[in-house]
Structures
1.
Amino acid sequence: MGREAGSYCVIVDIIDKNFLLVDGVNIRRRRVNYKHIEPTEDSVELKKGADHKAVLSAIKKAKFTDKMKEKIPIPV
């Protein structure tokens, strides 16, 4: 939801029962409500609480850089 709707991101950490810490190529690192994201089958190898540089490195290693830059069309 919001301005980053339709963008791919990586879940870096679980903050509590309602919030996750996400980061990505076109997504700024921030906490989001788990109800506002939709999981995909893709995954990257990452340590819990990894910094932005480690996230970008994991995305590159998994060859998801191009996918992370695209946006999913959101039905209105």
Note: The chain has two helices and three strands.
2.
Amino acid sequence: MRRRAFTLVELLVVIGIIAILIAILMPALTRARDQAVRLQCMSNLRNIMQAITMYESENKNYLPYCGWGNMPDQHTGWLYKSNGGTWIDNPPPLDFAKTGVVYSYLKTTQVFKCPLHQENRSQGPTEWITSYLMNGAVQDYGKYGPTQMTPNRVTKFRVTDVILWESGETSLMNNGPPFNDSSSFPGEWLTERHGTGSRVSGGGAIGSGGASIACFDGHVEWMSLKEYDKVVVSFDQPKNDNRFWCAPNVTDGGRGAGM
């Protein structure tokens, strides 16, 4: 019995159906992949916060040095131990994070980088080893000088105040490379790695994306760049403290000095 072959029209119809199905499924697959990476990034911050919490419990609720400016020599910060700032203009060794508080508890450096982070070395040397920066509010944004500051106790902050956020790509307020050390002013940029198809390396506030943030009570959130811009850098708002500008010993949470 002779078998009937597909006609050209039938093959084109099948190919067309497959193309339509791919077009329907691709956005869903892209969203699922982005969600998976976002969850991994948030998991990194949860692990970092777990280490910081353990450090606090062993040090009378004092937070680790955030690395504001240059820590006193040989003091250990959350990300690394100070070496007098000799690497500040050059990339530090990739295992430099092994000298910090977080590594001493977790024994892994993988938690310091978001899976989507592509190094842009013009943003500063510590971008080689981390995607996340600590809020300089931990040390009052240098109010008492970079080498005299003692980190605040965690009890000085509200539970929803932000201690860590995912930075990168650019400096939104043109304050210089955000990765010049391991801490930052809030206005020095929240990345847009997650949730946008319009992400451009080196671009500014361009899309609907956002980043992972961690709060002093240890919980982690995802924040859109639009929400961040409204809370942190909008000049339409009064200069008062909020969950980012939260330095406990500085007027207006440090916002006046940082803007």
Note: The chain has four helices and five strands.
3.
Amino acid sequence: MNRNELIAAMAKHSKLTKSDCEKALKAFIEAVHHAVASGEDVRLIGHGTYTFIERKATKARNPRTGEVIDVQATKSPKFKPGKEYKDRVNKRKK
């Protein structure tokens, strides 16, 4: 499912216009990005948690030249699905 298909499905399920659903989706994505980038977790009970992991700085080797290079520390976004979400994907009944 791509972004437009998701917006169409949201409109169908919510009986809102596609324009309103697109605005809502954009606002949701922006809010999650802002929260995670500022170090907060976003926990949606039944859906999952958006968070980040910190990767330490390390040294790596360029396979072509053999040169040792420094890899900077980074934050990487992460999503951990909730139990209810996993159960629905696996079609388990509560």
Note: The chain has two domains: 1-40, 45-94.
4.
Amino acid sequence: MTSQKQARARPARISLVLSDVDGTLVTDDKVLTEPTRRAVDALRSAGIRFAITSSRPPAGLRSVIHDLEIDTPVAAFNAGMIVRPDGSGAVLAEQLLPREAGDATLAYFAQRRIDPWVFTADRWLLSRPSGPYVDHERHTVSFEPTLVSDLASYLGGVGKIVGVSDDFELLARCEAELRQTLGATASVVRSQKYYLDVTHPRANKGAAVRVLADHFGIPRDEIVTIGDGLNDVAMFEQGGLSIAMGNASTPVKQAADLVAPSTNEEDGFAGAVHRFILDDSAS
């Protein structure tokens, strides 16, 4: 998943840019900067479509969709749910977590004292509101969690279960263990060093590339992908030119064709758009 691949040149034609959100489009404080907004506008002016994919639920992407005037299908839950961007909530395609995988995931997290969160399209369910990163997630998705006593009773129609911990080494070990435990019944990958996402086995960002290519009738190699996390590697592998953010980890950078000139805190997305996609000197 994180192996070095042979770098590709800028494709002769770029039809679409598919971007991750957290750690890529927005700053650590979840701000869309003016250079980022202008870079998206510049892509559209050049006739290049722009789309987003994220581990967030659809409801947690509303502000980004609104602020960037997204008019392409939105791949939420690591592409486990593809929705229209018009606010209707209409689902174009979905891959929900199988119930048996959800039960096994909750049991695994309980044994290791990792806080589980359960997400549907518009709800964030948890049992311990004082747990780590709750306030952080509240700020990220811009809606409140729902406190429930028994998460297992809500596992029908789930887009994602997240294991949350401030023990980053533990979560890294659990990523490999849980992936082996669940096998082909789920996709297991860290979207952040403190979040371990469990989704449908076909819910990964590589699927977002394939869905968008089919939706617009374009070759996958005309899609440029950009991201910073381990869960972005799947879309690097499925698209054309891939760009890792300057703040990405070494394995993510090794999996990409190019590395952005700076981090998400320093308008690395905008820099990558102008340098690698539009081939101009704007910043």
Note: The first strand starts at residue 16 and ends at 19.
